[in-house]
Amino acid sequence: MSGTHDLLRTALDLAADGLPVLPLRRGKVPFGNCRTCTRNACGGRPNMKTSGPCQCPDVCHAWAAATTNPRVIGSPQWAPAWRQAVGIGYHPGGANLTVVDLDSPAAVTWARQSLPPTRTVATMRGQHWIYQGAMRSVNGVRPGVDIKSTMAYARWRGPGTGTTTALPDEVRALVVREPATVRRVPPAITAAAPAGGGECRHRTPAYLERGIVMAEQRIIDARSSVHTTVYRTFLAVLSTHGRCGCLTDAHIARLFTAAQAKGESLRHCADAWANARTALGM
Fold it and tell me: Residue 149 in 3-state DSSP?
C-alpha cells in the first residue's frame, strides 16, 4: 500500500508541475483499454480533439490517458491501476518536451559527441536526454536511439541533472531523414485520386482519420503475435483506404510509429507494408 501511495503522490506532484502522467503496469507498459474502449470502439482517444468524443474515466488509450487533472489521477476509476502499477509514465509532447531515449552506452557516447547538452536522467541501460519542445515520435532513428514526444510515453525515472535546453535541429534532423525511408521502401499509394477535388468518393476524411486511429490502437493493444497483428492491420488499412488516393505518407508514418512502439523494427514495418500491398495487388 505504501508503494501505491508513493507512486500516486509522485504522480500528483508531477501533474501539478504540468507533466501529464499515467500509471504503468509490469513491463513498463500502459494499462489496456476497458471493455467499452477495446479496439477503439468508443470512437477515439480521450485526449485527442480530432479522434472522437470518448470521455472514458478509466485508464484507457495508452499515452492519451496521460493527464494533469488531479481528480482523474486520484479517482476511484484509476485506483485499481495504481494498486497494480510499478511505475509512472508521462506524455512528453503534452508538456512540450522531447525525450531522446539512449538505450545503450554506445548511444550515450554518440549523444555526448553529437547533441547539445541538456537535462539528463539515468535509466537502466542508458540515459534520457530531455529537451524543451515537441516533435514527432519515432523509434530506432539510429542504433539504440528512440525519440519520444507526441503520441508516445516515457517512464518517469526522476528529475535528472542539468538544465533543460531548447530542442535542437540535430534532434529534429534524426526524424526528418526517417520519413524518406518510409516513402522509399513502402511507396506512397499511387492509385489515382478519384474525380471531385481529390476526396474519396465513398469515405469521408473523418472516416479515414477514425480508421487510422483504430489501426494504431489495434497495434498498441497487441499482447502477442505482434508481427501478425501489424501485417493484418496494414492489410486492413490498405484494403479499405489504399485504392482511393486519400491515404498519405503521414498516415503511413503514424502506423509505422505505432508498430515501432511495440518493438517492431523499421525494416519489418517496411516488409509488412510491402507484403500487404503485394497481397492486394497494389
Answer: strand
Which residues partner with 100 through β-bridges?
A: 129, 147
Q: What is the mean pLDDT of residues 115-134?
A: 96
Half-sphere exposure in the Cβ direction for 114 (13 Å, CA): 17
DSSP for 165-233?
EEPPHHHHHHHHHHHHHHHHSSPPP-SPPPTTTT--SSS-HHHHHHHHHHHHHHHHT--S-HHHHHHHH
pLDDT tens digits along 162-191: 999 999 999 988 876 433 333 333 443 333
Q: What gap in Å lies between CA 120 and CA 5, rounded to an integer?
A: 26
Contacts of 95 (CB under 8 A, 6+ apart): 18, 19, 20
CA dihedral sign, ordered 115, 120, 123, 128: negative
What is the model's pTM?
0.63
CA triple 241-49-211, angle to 5 deg: 15
Q: List pLDDT tens digits, range 211-262.
A: 788 888 888 887 777 888 888 888 888 877 777 767 777 788 888 888 888 8
Domains of the chain by residue range: 2-90, 93-167, 185-279
